[in-house]
Amino acid sequence: MSNISIAIDGPAGAGKSTIAKIIAKVKKLTYIDTGAMYRAVTLKCIQEQVDLQDHRQVEAVLMDTKIELIGDSIFLNGTNVSEEIRRSEVNKWVSEVAKLSAVRKKMVEMQRAIADSQSVVMDGRDIGTFVLPHAAYKFFLTASIEERAKRRFEEQQQKGFSTSLAEVKSEIENRDRIDTERDLAPLTQARDAILIDTTGLSIEEVVDKILSYIQ
Ligand code: CDP
Ligand code: CDP
């Protein structure tokens, strides 16, 4: 039987990764967090103090970047960076790094190779529009900016981070703007994607909605 793919896209804090993980578990598919891959490259750029305007520096760093997804963890050149990639400095830079064509090319190649070899639930910004245009199911999750910021803020408070709600909101708005306005595979709903506004919906309600389409 051939592999099937489920694409879940949307802006920051819409609930993509939470929902995608549950769908993957229920349907016994592999969950692929493409945002984590861009975050890992960003961490490497920060570590190497790369000048993002300098293509040669970016290419050199990419040559020396090995990303592995193992279970729920992500490894950068053999080191588990699952926690580190959620740092505020990574949040700040990730959309700038994800704009670069060399970075996108390498990540998309990896993502397509993974989806070729197994059935996946893949979440990101351009999965339904660009990475897997022939995915069997495509969903675009969104929610009001207030709700998305509140969700992220609560998450960060639980982790003991000291950022304010206003800071979280502005960081998310800034990333959404860069992701939507970039030239290459910008954040947008695929024409054949099912739109789900998760504002006011529980995680269970969103999961049920998605499962009602794929069962
Ligand atoms: O979890 P959160 O919504 O905060 O972000 P993420 O999914 O971890 O993605 C982090 C960033 O990576 C996004 O803001 C985009 O700049 C970039 N990204 C992308 O360009 N394309 C993807 N398929 C996934 C993420
Ligand atoms: O991956 P993305 O940035 O789209 O969002 P997420 O990291 O999956 O979700 C952000 C937070 O919202 C998590 O703490 C979820 O538990 C919470 N949440 C949700 O995902 N969906 C809802 N319907 C309600 C809350």
Q: Number of helical runs?
A: 9
The CATH topology turns out to be Rossmann fold
Question: Structural class from helices and strands?
Answer: alpha/beta
Low-confidence stretches: none
Major sheet: 5 strands, parallel
Q: Please tell me how large the radius of gyration is.
A: 17 Å
Helical content stands at 40-55%
* Corresponding CATH architecture: 3-Layer(aba) Sandwich
CATH superfamily caption: P-loop containing nucleotide triphosphate hydrolases
Strand order of the largest sheet: 2-6-1-7-8
Into how many domains do the coordinates divide?
Answer: 1
Shape: globular
Q: What is the top-level CATH class?
A: Alpha Beta
Bound molecules: cytidine-5'-diphosphate
In whole angstroms, how far apart are the ends? 17 Å
Rounded mean pLDDT score: 96
What string gives the helices and strands in order?
EHEHHEEEHHEHEHHEH
Strand content: 15-25%
Catalytic activity: dCMP + ATP = dCDP + ADP; CMP + ATP = CDP + ADP
Domain Cytidylate kinase: 6-215
Main location: cytoplasm
Subcellular location: Cytoplasm
